[in-house]
Sequence to fold (444 residues):
Amino acid sequence: MAEQTIPLMENLVSLCKRRGFIFPSSEIYGGFGGFWDYGPLGVALKRNVENLWWNFMVERRDNVVGLDSSIICHPRVWKASGHVDHFSDLMIDCKGCKRRFRDDQVEAGKCPFCGSLELTEPRQFNLMMQTYIGPVFDEEHRAYLRAETCQPIFVDFDSIRISSRQKLPFGIAQIGKAFRNEINPRNFTFRSREFSQMEMEFFVHPSEDMQWFEYWKSERTRYYRDALKFDMDKLRIHDHGPDELAHYAKCALDFQFEFPFGWQELEGVHHRGDYDLRQHSEYSEKDLVYFDDQTRERFYPVVIETSVGLDRTILALLCAAYDEDEAETKKEDKEVDRRVVMRFPAAVAPIQCGLLPLSKKLEEPAQAALQPLRERFRCDFDVTGSIGKRYRRQDEIGTPFCLTFDFDSLEDHSVTIRHRDTMEQERIPLDQIENELAARLAAF
Fold:
């Protein structure tokens, strides 16, 4: 396999639009800043990552359960969490180009877009997105789109604990949409106004807090290494210093990924203390204290949180997968023909196997022979264009294997399997292809 290159973002954005991974929302109207739509391949990639994370965090464990909460909560949820009063960024306007920036994007008092020195003083800008419930648009009916998915977990803690019969330590996981009124969305889907989070809040006895913090640090490292198969040179851990910690946090760390635009946060593991349950107990006037029926002890559990952006994970996978290598030279002037290939792990690839009849004349027998594979694998039946162009198309969307049904297949009942990364081809009997493909995908 050729040495992988870091893609230019414009090449990646172009590929995502061309192949139907991701494109601007409402594009025929000029787009809508900070909002993105996932096309046929993008939604498949996204669903696969969701399923992988859910399996790793919930289905393999007896002490983690799930939640799917509403996007709009009671407004006092966000008052208790501190979002209404404190969830804000410093905002600066440029008087020259009329653009708006976060304070940390402006260096040396100069507009990062036009270079003007005519800037406003920084002022607070709340990131919560507001809406109204019912027909009257007044203060009494104001509500908020949730800014994070973890607060409903704390609000539902007692109901989930009782209904699932869980005892400490245990976790509650959720995948869902969140909304933040970002001042200046940027870097493709990295910073958006609508995004998906995958979060898990793990509730523990205060005496076991650091033991579980280290455990989840190790587990999340294992997830990136073994499940997503990231090159660990592209991933690093940043421990929060005292000036970076939230006021309620005992410790925290970020998993950072090396994007083309630099090292950026992918996931946070946070020791949130017992702040959230205490706050919601106070504001709701409901007792969220945990009672241990063995020790007869009453206390607020400590929370260890793992929080990762689904969209950022997708972007990291796209960046890690994108590659170009030198394919066979066919032109007389000896120009190098470059092959674009997305080297997705098989577990998350939108398509696991391309089903390709060599000729349209073979479409019907190829369908009959290969259609049963759809029951077990994510397949794409493609009969349009030359076989070489179809191989390239499958390479560009990250399909690990292609099966070619040719005229010899009618006689020898075999197909040719092609490996995406090596481009090597091998003949496999049809009655062995299902087990052979399963084994190769598992080892991919």
